[in-house]
Amino acid sequence: MIDPLRKLEIKQYAEAVIFAFELKKQIRSFCFKGKNEVRFFAQCIDNIIAKLDYMASLIEEERQNREEVERIFKSIILHF
Q1: pTM, two decimal places
Q2: With contact defined as beta carbons under 8 Å apart, do 27 and 20 qualify?
């Protein structure tokens, strides 16, 4: 069992690893204490990537919705 505070540290490190990879920055090393922590870290990475993919799909959907609304607005002819 991993201590809750240690879990938080591992989650924060996982986030830092993702952002460092995306921004091509260096990051400090982190010492894991056993296989359970390494598994938890991998789980955190997977969760972050899944959330990023989900957010990207939401952003793309919103972008498409806005384009559709703009297309509809442009097609409306106002008569005065």
Answers
A1: 0.67
A2: yes
